[in-house]
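Structure first, sequence second, as always.
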């Protein structure tokens, strides 16, 4: 992300993230382009843990201490979260353990993305148990989308 995104998150009081300086890999095409200073997004808060059995991980072995799989696992079609492990502190950015790469955001973040006219961001709908869903066109001419104020 760029400084413009960091400025927008800060200006609107968005919580649960940190920015870390990042550099592109040694890719000849990128080295010829004048890139702005880039940052990686770090997420501070975790929401809960997946229900391994309900998610279809089968007999995969999971270490509860280091939050990593200790045996091969099958990629599930859907990840079902264990409701009893929810510990969300109402941050605007959060993940679920052990997969820190699945980042959830609050509606506030989507509204900031729209207000600040961010590009190259993608948001999807989800509910409290199942992840995955339809994309949200946060830059759509007609706003908000159907059902936005119901959740």
């Amino acid at each position: 992300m760029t400084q413009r995104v960091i400025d927008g998150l800060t200006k609107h009081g968005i919580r649960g993230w940190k920015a870390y300086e990042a550099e592109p890999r040694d890719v000849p095409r990128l080295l010829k382009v004048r890139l702005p200073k880039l940052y990686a997004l770090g997420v501070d808060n975790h929401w809960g843990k997946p229900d391994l059995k309900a998610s279809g991980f089968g007999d995969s072995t999971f270490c509860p201490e280091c939050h990593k799989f200790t045996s091969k696992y099958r990629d599930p079609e859907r990840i079902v979260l264990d409701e009893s492990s929810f510990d969300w502190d109402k941050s605007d950015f959060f993940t679920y353990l052990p997969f820190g790469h699945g980042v959830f955001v609050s509606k506030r973040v989507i509204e900031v993305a729209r207000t600040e006219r961010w590009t190259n961001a993608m948001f999807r709908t989800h509910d409290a148990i199942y992840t995955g869903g339809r994309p949200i066109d946060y830059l759509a001419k007609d706003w908000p989308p159907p059902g936005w104020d119901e959740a």
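Margin note: The chain has a mean pLDDT of 77.
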